[in-house]
Amino acid sequence: MNRLTTLLLAALLTVGLVGPVQAEPKKDFRIAWSIYVGWMPWGHAADAGIVKKWADKYGIGIDVVQINDYVESINQYTAGAFDGCVMTNMDALTIPAAGGVDSTALIVGDFSNGNDGVVLKGATDLKAIKGRKVNLVELSVSHYLLARGLESVGLSERDITVVNTGDADIVAAAAAPEVDAIVTWNPQLAEVKALPGASLVFDSADIPGEIIDLLVVNSATLAANPALGKALTGAWYETLALMAAQDAAGKAAREAMAKASGTDLAGFESQLATTQMFYTPPEAVAFSRDPALLRTMDYVRTFSFAHGLLGEGARSADAVGIAFPGGKTLGDAGNVKLRFDDSYMKMAADGAL
Amino acid sequence: MTRLLNRRPGRAGALVLGVLPLALLAVAYLIGSDARLAANPNDKLLPSLATLVDTTLRLATQPDARSGDVLLWTDTAASLQRLAWGVGVSAVLGFAVGVAMGLVPLVRATLAPLVAVLSMIPPLALLPILFIVLGLGELSKIVLIGFGVAPFLMRDLAQRAAEIPREQLIKAQTLGANTWQIALRVVIPQTLPALVHGLRLTLGPAWLFLIAAEAIAATDGLGYRIFLVRRYMAMDVILPYVAWITLLAYAMDRTLAALARRWFPWVEDHSA
């Protein structure tokens, strides 16, 4: 009997741990972020007390948590362990949105403008990739970049072989003699393209505005707690203003971010040079309202569907609906799971936070 | 008075008690899955039983849209091939070196320190080096498994060979046998069962190294698929793959145990 009760208890605990996620009015929130040039401001905003200042202003608590594994942080968010998480536009569509978690892109932080690239050894033209084995993190934005690159020179994925290679190991892999085509992102990209005989043949600056870095929050949580959206947006733009300032405080902030991302000021600024940061809210609002965003998301969802990333239930690229500012949508309007919402960025632009 | 430690379950009782924890886990899973799916029908974390069965059938019977392969079988074939090479080469090396070390003091003096040092290297720490030296292909994956398995087998078999009673070796020598004949007729028949036993113990680590190698760089394999679909949380693929790997590993263990019983009936303990 004793054994049975123990087991029952264990079973109940398991159920409790994996119970349903519910959006309720609450006071404390958790946001996940991981190391990447465009997301370093979150770490600094937390360390410098900027997040706390804004959370206090709206009477809530916000815990900003750094996660060492990017995909794991998105999975944790999707499973309900976090109220928000940083991620790219493609991952936002294919992981939480395709998993049925209604998600809102609260802040459009930047787009990759050269941070992701295709590197070939012994060739300077992307066309030479034909017939090669290409090492990359399969099904990531690298894969998307490669697909867009191949399209631009009239090739398709059938003309190459994709080898899934972990991002932590891609630099070591690229050094192997038989590896001659690599797709990756910074800071690894800088290492890979510095290898002897290696040339950058295509990068995200060739498809500007398509690989976008976002802060995504759970739509139901945001709707029930507008204070969360206001506090996060306020903290973000205060940090970015500090980061962009050409004075001692700005330099100190950039140095802190450089150190936190494991490089020095020069290394961090070279990464910033290939990142199109939206330092002020009006720039981000304009980008969110540009019809080009619809075109980008159309490419992204087509790629995602073709690679099976929209999940089992998806019968077409329309399965998961995407909403944009101004009431425009892509795909199934009855199943909108990813929302680009510029209303909080607009409040920041109007000084209404 | 009956003490708890003296109460033994009957055959049926043991079966019920053995199945009970597994059944409870399954029930806990189903309750959790139901609750999450009620809140979000597209939830990917704990897919329903129907989804699991559907996906498994699709993986096992339908060609993949992109590659045209039936994924479960191509992945299984690729992984089993790597595992067979890795474990096979380790078994041959481990047996030859181990027996030589146990039987011939000169070999032991030469190789024992080296093997001891090699067996202390965590194989996964070598992976980046293996990639650079051997490339990203099959060879580095097989060598990784070898690094994890062979030194253990060498040390285990050296120990087993050294444990053979001295009297037997002396007796064989008085009957005129040379070292080679003693190895062939006295030592090998007694250490072969230990090899099979050692292989059973190393299957767990061998799978671990296989999956680790496939997770880092591959175009197919069971570990590759799990780490690939992890990117978009396809638990409906991951869970059946984990169950399949468990089943394969269990079947291998049972097969080796049965072979040992059949080939070496003179060994008392097969620790079934």
UniProtKB/TrEMBL annotation, chain A:
Pfam families recorded for this chain? NMT1
Query: Where does the protein end up?
Result: Periplasm
Coiled-coil stretches noted in the UniProt entry, renumbered to this chain: none
**Domain SsuA/THI5-like: where?**
58-245
What is the protein's major site of localization? Answer: periplasm
The superkingdom listed in its UniProt entry is Bacteria
Cellular component terms, GO, for this chain's entry?
A: periplasmic space
Citing just one GO molecular function, the answer is: kinase activity
Point out the signal peptide segment.
Answer: 1-23
Which key words are in the record?
A: Kinase, Signal, Transferase
| Entry annotated with the keyword Transferase | yes
Q: What family does this chain come from, according to its entry?
A: Belongs to the bacterial solute-binding protein SsuA/TauA family.
Among NCBIfam families, the record links this protein to: ABC_peri_uca
State what protein this is by name: Lipid kinase
Its source organism is: Immundisolibacter cernigliae
TrEMBL record, chain B:
Q: Which Gene3D superfamilies match?
A: MetI-like
**One Gene Ontology MF term:** kinase activity
Q: Could you list this entry's UniProt keywords, alphabetically sorted.
A: Cell membrane, Kinase, Membrane, Transferase, Transmembrane, Transmembrane helix, Transport
Identify the main location. Answer: membrane
GO CC terms: plasma membrane
Concerning InterPro entries, the annotation shows: MetI-like, MetI-like_sf
Q: Which SUPFAM superfamilies match?
A: MetI-like
Membrane disposition: Multi-pass membrane protein
Q: So where does this one cross the membrane?
A: 12-32, 83-104, 111-133, 207-227, 233-252
Q: Name one Pfam family in it.
A: BPD_transp_1
Q: Can you say where in the cell this protein is located?
A: Cell membrane
All residue ranges annotated as the ABC transmembrane type-1 domain in the record: 76-260
Gene Ontology biological process terms, A to Z: cellular response to sulfur starvation; transmembrane transport
What protein family is recorded? Belongs to the binding-protein-dependent transport system permease family.
Q: What name does this protein carry?
A: Lipid kinase
Q: Which organism is it from?
A: Immundisolibacter cernigliae
Q: What is the lineage of its organism?
A: Bacteria, Pseudomonadati, Pseudomonadota, Gammaproteobacteria, Immundisolibacterales
